[in-house]
Design a protein that fits this description.
17 helices, 66% helix, 436 residues, alpha/beta
Amino acid sequence: AGVRVIDSHGTPGRDLHGLNLAVAIFVAFGGMILGGRLLLNPIFRIIAKSQVREMFTVIALLLVIGASLLMAWLGISAALGAFIAGMVLADSHYRHQLERDIEPFKALLLGLFFMSVGMSLDFTALAQNPFGILTIVFAVVALKFCLIFIVGKVFKLDLTNNMLFAVLVSQAGEFGFVLFQFAKTQGLIAPNSVTVLTAVIALSMATTPFMLIAYDKLILPRFKTGKTTGEPPQNCQHRVLILGFGRVGQVISRLLHTQDVDMTILDHDGDHIEFVKQFGYRVFYGDAGDIDLLHSAGADMADVIVIAIDDVTRATETAREIKHHFPKARIIARARNRTHMFDLMAEQVAYVERETVRGALAMGRAALTNLGFDDARARQLSDDFLKFDAQLIEETWEHRNDMDTLIKKAHDGRDFIKRTLNADQQRRDPKISEPQ
């Protein structure tokens, strides 16, 4: 069977059949995804520079409506087009900005969605076979709960979080409404079956609030781990804001404290906040990636913002968001490794440091001195190595996405640093001794 296509003038166009239809759908989907990756970020970058925030919402609406109309033109569900457009927008570097811009509409649209879900229920069909439909609902929710719980175990979630994860995702997905209506339109599923399946999806979604109540009242008190949260952030008008108070953030704060530098500290681990409070630290609770929370913490007044969080992706995204929303602040960031360092350099932070490099060099100095090297020479070798390694990073940064070039430069760099260090040592002291 073919799909009747209506052209842009509203008159019947040609029919698309079989392979032609499949190719058209593939080209439409592929074009949307590829175009979104190549064009959206540059467009949003221009909008960000213009500082006209409303244009983010305009472009998002234009993309969603255009994708819906394109899918409808192909004879496919318009909701499917909107879904693909949403995926493209979610892959944008500016997705956090889009989330904040559409936040005022979220509650309204969610309410409208659930109203439409309720209106789609056929209570006559439910009354005719209540036991059968409720049995299917129970089976779907129980099966999905068990599968999600197993997935959580595989990813080593703790028991309470795993159960909450399974409860939240146990209902049938709302996209089933779109798929079943599309299948009904194409004659793949009988209308009576679609009515029953729609009722199953709607009723399974209605079980989630009751399961959450049961989780809070019956399950959580039995397995409560005693996790706590700290106080919400306040604007203390400090010049320094430290995001993350783990092993790196603590050392930074101790150094700044020696010079009486006031700082506002944020961390997302409530238990850790309670622990360090015993040592006299005041740490606020919050997610470093939440721009509204950073506003509350006084980020727009800070001269320096230190990103000392452990999560590589969150650290990079946080640097990008801070650079956009708080351009006055200089960002000092902690990098997990060289690749992460390249990502942070691409965000043009003021300073980035790999978390283990200086500790590793200190251990290297100790190894040299224990092998009989002079202590002054070992220290000079360590300092020079750090200097030339930083120079090598600057040279390889522009090739950060070319693995073959990086590998070649890494080999060449090791030889270069070795020759340069030995030559510098000879110039400083021609009589320098080898290890004893």
